[in-house]
């Protein structure tokens, strides 16, 4: 894989507002997140301690978005009552030309690396739409296990979880160890 395929992460900022709004209208993003209003104008100006927002880039080109939260601390309590020491991830590729090339896998590997870098984190949650069978297969390939079906807001979702133990046991399949995935803070 050429170096231009390296996925890097940088913090999302207000400079990304137009980009994120455009991605919100992309069919593949709508298919995974049809009812959420992210409130980008406000949220890009906030940095609560329970949240990280990242732009994924390939060769300097923004291609996607990752949000990592502490669901027990998150202000809206979207996840309801959950135990401490979990993380939840939202991820999408906004640029359709970058779909199907392994970038989503590398993005998720970087997100997992960030989540599990905190030694107290025991597991990571995700909540794909129940109808999005392609995302279910994607997460299962990364080692996530189905937990339950749950209504979250207006959406019927499947909850998946990846435990620290399963992540560590999976080795290089679930962890970013290859040369083509780096975070801006790792460069």
TrEMBL record:
Ranges for domain N-acetyltransferase come to 7-165
Record key words, sorted:
Antibiotic resistance
CDD domains linked to this entry: NAT_SF
Q: Which domain of life is it from?
A: Bacteria
Recorded hits in InterPro entries, A to Z, give: Acyl_CoA_acyltransferase (IPR016181), GNAT_dom (IPR000182)
Annotated protein name in UniProt: Acetyltransferase
């Amino acid at each position: 894989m050429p170096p231009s395929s390296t996925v890097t992460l940088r913090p999302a900022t207000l400079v990304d507002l137009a980009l994120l709004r455009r991605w919100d209208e992309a069919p593949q993003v709508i298919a995974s997140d049809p009812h959420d209003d992210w409130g980008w104008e406000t949220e890009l100006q906030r940095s609560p301690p329970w949240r990280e927002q990242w732009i994924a880039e390939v060769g300097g080109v923004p291609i996607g978005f990752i949000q990592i939260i502490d669901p027990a601390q998150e202000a809206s309590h979207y996840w309801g009552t959950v135990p401490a020491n979990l993380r939840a991830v939202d991820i999408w590729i906004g640029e359709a030309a970058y779909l199907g090339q392994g970038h989503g896998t590398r993005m998720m590997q970087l997100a997992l690396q960030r989540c599990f870098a905190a030694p107290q984190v025991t597991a990571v949650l995700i909540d794909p739409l129940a109808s999005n069978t392609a995302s279910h297969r994607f997460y299962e390939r990364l080692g996530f296990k189905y937990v339950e079906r749950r209504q979250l807001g207006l959406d019927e979702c499947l909850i998946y979880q990846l435990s620290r133990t399963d992540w560590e046991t999976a080795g290089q399949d679930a962890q970013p160890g290859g040369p083509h995935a780096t975070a801006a803070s790792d460069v």
